[in-house]
Amino acid sequence: MRLRAEVTNSNLLLRIVQSIDKLTKSAILKLTPDKLHIIVITDMDSGLQLWSDIVVEALFEDYQIESNFNNEIYLEFNIDNLQRALRSTQGGGALGVTMKLVKKLGGLPVLSLIIRSQSATGREITLCQDVPVRLLSAEQMDAIREPLVPEGQIHIMMPPLNNVRSIAERMKGMGDRVAVSANRNGEMNVRVANDLVDITTYFRGLETMSYDTTTQETSTDGGGGTGRLSSETFTAVVDMKNFLKFLQSHHVAPKNVMCCISEHHALIIYVYIGSAGYTGAAAMHDSSCGSLTYFIPVRQI
Amino acid sequence: MEAEVPAASLKTFYRALQCLGSIGEDIWIEARTDHLELIGKNASQSAYARIVFPAEFFDAYDSGESDNAVFRCRVQAKQLVGIFRSRTQAVEQCVLSIEQAAEPVHINSSATQGECRLVVRLAYKQRVCRTHRLFYEACETFHSTYDRRDCKGRWRVAAAHAASWVAHFARGSEEMTLQMTSSVVRVRSWTAGNVAQPDATRALHTELSVDPADFDMYHVPHPVELALALREFRAVLRYAERMAAPLSAFFDRPGWPLLLEVAAPPNPDARDHRQAPPTAEFVLATVADETTPAPSSNNATPASRAPTQILAVPDSIEPGSAPSPDASPYAHSRSSFAQWSPDNRSDSLLATPASARRANTATADSIAGSLPNSLGGPASQPVPESRVPTARAYRLLDMPRPYAPPGLTDTQLSDEHAAADELRNAPPGMVQTTLPFPTTAAQRPQGDMPVANADYSSDEELDATPPPPSKRMRALF
Predict the structure, then answer these.
(1) Phi/psi of residue A298, each to 5°?
(2) Partner-chain contact B200 A128, CB within 8 Å
């Protein structure tokens, strides 16, 4: 089992880890020959899950990976440790960062980040941050699967995450659950309510994806039919905490964020990590360098 | 003693206090005729700090004593630091003085005049004046017996540089090692905890290699590796950074303490008060190596200047005391620390608390009375020693503990112990006194204000223990 790579885009990796920072203590890193996956599961049943993937070319150069399981490596690590280690890679004077999977004394595996940088006097300082990891076997990794969610009823591009985040921050004291709803007209509402207050934020002019699914029929018999009317609103009520956790992904400065509402089941949000800018239907195609997919289960009352 | 701190140097004074406050709980003040010393040490006696303000630093300085007499006292660090923490920009004049009671203070008199207090008076613009009166305790001070001239290795480095090494360490790191050779300096962080498990819950381990050419002065004749506690080292670094002064280090070998000095060179061009900046020296204990014959505490005698005794303590540990208990907390010593040895844990400079417990000496008295006099008590401690996993935790947790943990009211203590016992074994702060004036519950006629009474009804029970500060305030006003 071998892993070695030159981290060229440590800033992006740091921002990704910052997005997952407060979710939970540990996360799983799955490294394959062409992609890097970060999987965060906060709570098996009712918690938010994050499944992300990034092409390795966006982060590394000279990427070498070898293992017995199809050249894939599965690691469990502590998010705070990795974040601290990556933070050391920032700052002026960093010349190069190398990532290696090594066994430190005692046979303990660590993900070692070797950072060469320049001190104030110009001499080279070598900093080595060892993030302790736990190796997962292929069977353990198999047990972890993406959650099965039924097809969403509506896909809508979300407004800029910073706007939504500032609004959600204000709303968070009002209640412990938030209702996210959208319709085909490009309208999205974020609503929170408690005994005294009811706050709704209306976003207009958003772009929606229209699917050619078999369930889509033009309704001729007025309301009550099985057709999807363009003004029908689909709502998902999720935990406020999970919603805020997802909004932490603003750190990656995503180009597009697509929200998919699966009523009564989950809110699935695809955060596309920016590469070249593009909008609209092209966002459906995975042509960016990576994406973070949040599965937020609908709150069961 | 009276000292007037120039308004422009208040920040410097505050930084010194802050540094001492982050090392230990108390600050000892020693006022000599030509300088004022502030001394601090940490709870486990493994770090010592001394900051000297020459008389020229002050606008006016009078030690108030005759030539050879020295005024010594101890105050609580938190209180002193808190005074200077904020709002020092608008201060026009700051005077520290000692007020001593002209006559003995009677317990029943409610006058605040005539008490022994350290008075800090801050005069602001617009004739606003803030006066703080701090309780001080006259006591003995202590000094380090180590001399930097005895140290073979030394270096000096700019503070910002040193701080940048430690900045990379994870938050939970407890210890660090400095491995110094002639060609490279390696700084590593270590954390306590169960490192034997291949788990992701271990902490980040950081290792940094620095070129000795980065140092202002570097003289290390033979390679040496020192392991010391990170917390105190960070406090020293912070102080050096804030003072923008270089940090000098003097060391000899593992087990011998690391001497650090932060002294800004006087600037002849600046105004008067800057010509006498404070000099600070720190002594940090390091972990003894297995191979070096570091004297363990049972060999310490008053005569020999044992390296493990930083403090010039008149009494010493009885030679018969065992170095460490049988159920040593280090029976499972960490695999990462090849050189750490459970039995040679002499980095706690005096007797390790466990052996002090066994020795049952009055050592605590000599250490400026800071440890409670309860060495006999903890023999019945329910805390199992094998529970304690780490060095630092060991030093702090196994400190001679009072019989009653702080916070327990006397109603919860067991009845078998006489009141005198409780008094002796009480931790500092849990003072068994009666208030000098009757409590409000006794004062107020019974049956009045039933709602409010509910709050004070427990005053009777708590009579022997002072009520928590918020309640006490309510009782006074």
Answers:
(1) -70, 140
(2) no
**CB pairs A-B closer than 8 Å:** 90
Q: Do A121 and B164 touch (CB under 8 A)?
A: no
What chain A holds in terms of domains, given with CATH numbers, is: 2-142 (3.70.10.10), 154-297 (3.70.10.10)
Structure tokens at B74: 């101890």
Dihedral of alpha carbons B339, B340, B344, B350, sign: positive
Number of H helices and E strands in chain B, helices first, is 11, 18
Residue that wins the pLDDT comparison between A203 and B392: A203
CB contact under 8 A, A132 and B214: no
User: In a structure prediction context, what are the per-residue pLDDT tens digits for chain B, which is 477 residues long?
Assistant: 888 988 888 888 999 999 999 999 999 999 988 889 999 999 998 999 999 999 888 988 888 777 777 888 899 999 999 888 876 778 888 999 888 765 554 555 444 455 678 999 999 888 889 899 999 888 888 888 888 888 899 999 998 888 888 888 888 888 899 999 999 999 999 887 666 666 667 788 899 999 888 899 999 999 999 999 999 999 999 999 998 899 999 999 888 899 999 987 665 555 554 567 889 999 999 988 765 444 333 323 332 223 344 444 333 332 333 333 332 233 233 333 333 333 334 444 433 343 333 333 333 333 333 333 333 333 333 333 333 334 444 444 444 545 545 554 454 444 444 455 555 555 555 544 545 555 554 444 444 444 443 444 444 444 444 555 555 444 444
Instruction: Report the 10 Å Cβ neighbour count for B96.
Output: 24
Measure the CA–CA gap between A25 and B310, rounded to whole angstroms: 41
Residue carrying the six token digits 């020229």: B56
Distance CA B459, CA B116 (A): 28
> Which of A84, A106, A132 lies at the smallest CB-CB distance from B200?
A132
Say whether B202 and A104 touch across the interface (CB within 8 A): no
Choose among A85, A119, A134: nearest Cβ to B198: A134
Mutate which of B204, B210, B218, B335 to disrupt the A interface (most A C-beta within 10 Å)?
B204
- Measured between alpha carbons, how far apart are the two ends of chain A, in Å? 46
Nearest to A124 among B171, B199, B211 (CB): B211
- Specify the pTM: 0.68
Q: Which residues of B touch A126 (CB under 8 A)?
A: 208-209
